[in-house]
Structures are given as C-alpha cells and as structure tokens.
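To the team - adenosine-5'-triphosphate complex, inputs and output below.
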Amino acid sequence: MMRPIARTATLPALLLVAALVPLAGNDFHIALGISILMYATLAIAWGLFAGPTKYIGLATAAFFGVGAYTVGLLYEKVPMLALYPLAAVIAALLALIVGLTTLRIQGMYFTIFTFGLAELIRQLMTWYQRNVTGSVGLYIITDITARQIYWALTVLLGLTLLAGWLLARSRYGLALLMIGEDEVAARHSGVRTTAVKVLTLAGTSAIMAVTGAIVAPRWTYLDPNIAFNPTLSFMPAVIALLGGMQRFWGPLAGAIPLVILFDQLNARFPTAYTLILGLLFMAIVFVIPNGILGLLPKIERKRMAEARLTTPAASTLSEPLAPAMPARSATPSIDGISGPVGKLSSHGSTLLEVRSLRKTFGGIVAVDDLSFEIREGEVFGIIGPNGSGKTTVLNLISGLYQPDRGEIVFVGHKITGKAPEEIARLGIARTFQLVRIYPALTCLDHVTPAALFAGHARSLSDAREQARQLLEELGMAAYVHVPAGQLNFIDQKRLELARALALRPKLLLLDEWLAGLNPSEMLIGMELIESLRGRGMTIVLIEHLMQAVRRLCDRCIVMSFGQKIAEGLPGEVLRDREVVRVYLGEADDA
Ligand SMILES: Nc1ncnc2c1ncn2[C@@H]1O[C@H](COP(=O)(O)OP(=O)(O)OP(=O)(O)O)[C@@H](O)[C@H]1O
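Output:
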C-alpha cells in the first residue's frame, strides 16, 4: 500500500508533469491538454457537490457560460485578471439564488430544474444578443496564447484539487456526506443543511465560471450555443461517473480517457457524437456504477474487510448496554454528553411545554388541541393506538413538521417555527421510529458531527474523540470504524442513540426505540434507558410495550385520534376505563 506522503504527493507531481506538456508538445497536444484540463476541472467541481450530496445537477453549462460571457462582454473594458474573480462572484451569486430556490427539491426534480436553468440562461443570452447588441455572437480578440490558457487551467485544476482535499478533511465535507446519506437525520444532528448545500454549490459554480472565463479567449468567437452548450453539463457528469466519486480526485481518472475518446469520435463521427455520449452514460451506470475508482484494488474494501474482522459476532449485543453506560459518577466528559445530572428525584422545573398543538395532513387531523408539559429529569411516555398521532407530536417538537396551531416552549423559549437543526442545537435530540442511519458512513462519522455542529467540540479531532468515547460507553468500541450499513438492528439503534447523545441533549425523544428487539435485547435496552434516567436525562418515550411504560415512565399521556384522552402516573392511566377501551384491550402485551 502507498505511504500517505507518497499518496499526497501524487497529485501535485501529476500536475507538475502536466504543466511541462506545452514545453515539449505541439499545438495538437496543447489543444487536447486544454480540453482535458477544462473537463477535469469542471468534473471535479461538479463532483465536489454531487458526489457526497447525491444532488445530480445539470447546470454546469450555465455557470461555465456565465464565466465565458463575463470575459466576452467585458474584456475590452476590464483587465483580464480582474475578470476571473468577477466571473466567480457572478456565478456564485447565481448559484446562491438557484440554491436557495431549488435545494429543497431532490432527486430527479433537482436534475431537471438545473438542466432547465442552463437552457433558460442560454435563451436569455440569445435574446440579449439579438435585441440588445444586435448580433448573434461576439468576438474575443486577445493576445492570450493557447499555452497561457493551458497553464492557467493547470493552476485552476490544482486549486480545485486543493479545495477538494481541504473539503474532504473539513466539517463541511462530513456534513455533505451526511446530507447525501440522510438529510433529515443530518438536520437532527444540528447540520445546517441548506447553508452547507448552498455555499458548496456557490463555491463549485465559481470554479466552473472561472474555467469558462479562462477558456473563452480560445474560441475567438462566442455565442450562446457555444458557451451554454448542454454537452458542457453532461460531459462533467459522465466523466465524474466514469472516474468514480468515492474520492474528490476521482473524476480526474475519467477525464483523460473520455476526452481523448470524444476528441477522436468528434473528428470521425461528428453527427453521432451526442448519441454516443448518451449511450456511454448508460453503459457506465450499468457496467461500472462505481467508476474506475471502484475497479481499483480496493483500499476501501480492504479497510472494510479489516473492520469486519475486528467486529464481534453480530447477531446480538456483544456487551450489555446498561452496564456499558457509566453510573452517575461518570467521567466529566460523559456527564457533559448526558446532560444535566442529579435531577432524578426532583423532577424539577418545566423543560418543555406543548400548548394547544394542532397538525393536519389534508383531511386528517393527526394532532388535535394537544397540551402537556414535561419536567426536568422525568421520563414521559406517549402511548396510544397506531395512527393516534404520537410520532407526529415528536416530529412537531423536533421541528420536522410545523404545527397549524399552538406552540411549543422549551426552557422558556418558543421553538415553534424553528428548523430541526436549530432545535437540535438548542438541546433536543431524537431517534426515529424507522432507524435512520447513514449506511456508508462509519459509526465514528455518525456521532462526530452531532458533537461538532452542536458546538460541543473545539475541533474536528476533539469531536472525534468525544464520539469515540461515547461509542465506547455504549459498548460499541469495536464498531468505531465499521460502516453503519454493516451493523445489526440493535447496534443500529444504539448508534442512533449515540448520535442523539452526542448533542448533549437536555431532552431526548425516543420513538419506539425498543420496537423490534428480541426479549433479551429489550431488557438490555430498558436498562440503558434507566441508566440514562439515573443520570438525570429528561426523556420522552413513545412506546407500545406496556411493560416498558410501567417500568420506565414517571408520567404518561394517552392519545387517541390526535387528542389526549388521559394523563398521569402509568399505573393509574393504564387502568383508566377509556384508555382500556381505545387501546389496551387490543394492545396490552404486558
Ligand atoms: N407526513 C404525513 N403525511 C400525511 N399523513 C400523515 C403524515 N404523518 C402522519 N400522518 C397521518 O397522521 C396520523 C397520525 O400518524 P402518526 O404516525 O403520528 O401516528 P402514531 O401514533 O405515531 O402511529 P404508529 O404507532 O403507527 O407509529 C395517521 O393517520 C397518519 O397516517
């Protein structure tokens, strides 16, 4: 295996070799080199956003064209060196607008929208040229040589690679990965997903625009069909897919063979060029979905196999959960993670107040005029038949849904209307009814961001250390570097809990956390919740298992058709005639 220093030096060495090509090569080599550098830069910039987030945009042509036109329209009035940052700023502003309006949509809709955007800008530019300048295109006559363009692109490619390298090592890189894996869970870990997405989109769009600005003088004549050519949107995507996006430099591996191939195809079959591009796109997706990187002798797979070897047999818990949790005399860091201690018997002041909450979905009233309050240090149960509105209440508290009416007050502050990431940062953590993990990320990468984005860590490495400790406390030391997708069910649940605890919540929302566990796992799970309560954690527990409600909850409410039909001590509530009628008759398995 390559040593880290040798690995890190490979890319700068390659760039250095590339920079020497114009000195030795002829015009053809330089022209081909410009194409390779241009597409490699565009593809890497595209992959920096699309790779981790899985938002497949097709607007590269729009940003590239903006850069080219910035030069085309202004090169006679503004110094060339000032045009590059100007192109970057214009593209970044455009991306900010696009991002803020489109990044709430996902999947195919985002792809179609971005493609439409590129077409819209091309049409607007065509209209502008015809009606304002009175021409179809414009000429760019400069004394910039092909060699200079080549070298400028080499520098830009180097900077783009550097940006990718830094991003992959930063908290934002981790946030982007989480967004790609599960955006809802990422928000509940305190990640400001919209800001992260919009800023990354703006940054990568700026790189695309500077590429266009550098290449523009090469064409001499520019019109919208050249500058905003849809091929400029498709090619980077095809290149990135061919190269592979597991690493930020992956598209580089796709750029060289593809650009040479297309140069040949374009020369020999100019009319069938785009058809072949489309077929190739499909072939890559079917034959090598992970790109060239995925075919390499698998540093990644080897690492994962090693991790698996160190993983204990997976069918059940390797270590009991509750004993793995420290008692109240835990180390200071654990105390911090677990929230306020020593409130067990006091059940002090009101931590959360839900006032007249209502939430409808179309004609369905999921939560109807619901009010209750939760006191510090208590375990508060929410029970009720299927569809009675329990999860909706949790979703309203955690900010995933906004209520139609009513308000939620947390430690004296109204949190209604706040986004999940803000509520998570304020100290409300949750798990999900259907476990939400990031299958491709390691357990450490699951837990680290919560510590980081909630502001409890001084640095990424500090957050990693906190996450490692927390995983150890939950009996998951052997899984620290194991991808979450390889964990069994109970361990995925523990991982979700670890991620929630890393926020050091004041309030923990557990949505049927015990569901799906076998009887022995259930006992261990209950001990774990008890140990959290023993350390003063305030917990809201949605639970169908009455045995668990009786054992764990200090107080509970019962919901039916969105309304609260009973409230009080579990023993009393579970004897209530109305409760027995709507719920327990069908569901008590105690
Ligand atoms: N996003 C949504 N869109 C439409 N309807 C929804 C949505 N979320 C919940 N509902 C509806 O609201 C009602 C309450 O659902 P909710 O999931 O809150 O119930 P629950 O008590 O948690 O049920 P369960 O115990 O089965 O999880 C149901 O009728 C459900 O179909």
